[in-house]
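For practice. Supply one:
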Amino acid sequence: MMGAEQVHEEDVGMGGWSEITSTQCPVARSSAVIGDRWTLVIMRELTMGNRRFDTLQVQTLASPQMLTNRLKRLEADGMLERRAYSERPRRYEYHLTDKGEAFAPVLLALRNWGETWCKEPGEGIAVHHIHQTCGREVGLSGTVCEGCGEPFTMNEVTGELSAAFARERESRSAAARRDAEARPT
């Protein structure tokens, strides 16, 4: 657990982050861990099962430096852990810890709010979460399946991307492949 005295190196001199980490307010303390949109989309990707740096970078659109910084910070805060999958060259996958998995309801709440308030008319739901237990969509109401009324965790749902969101993600992946092919070797 993050102690009130913990301050991240990059927070010093940022006009108030150290004060946020020393408050008793749980919302302020949580924001000191999550902090920004980059961290939220990284957590989204990790929850969706993307574990490797290159995939995280492509789907979050973060610069390598930004992604490295946020991954290190999430690791220091106990939200994820690195696991080596290659020795030569040394490469890591990023896996959510129990603390990171416990963040899923926050992402679901943001999903609900975004689907309700941040869409253009006629846009469909970006990701349909199907409850593996009952086979129905869990809906947007939180961590209780609207189909069967039972609580669920993100490990118990399968995400089905809308056609538009799948195209958006594939477009980012295709652009990254083109960029990689264009680089001199």
Notes: The chain has a mean pLDDT of 88.
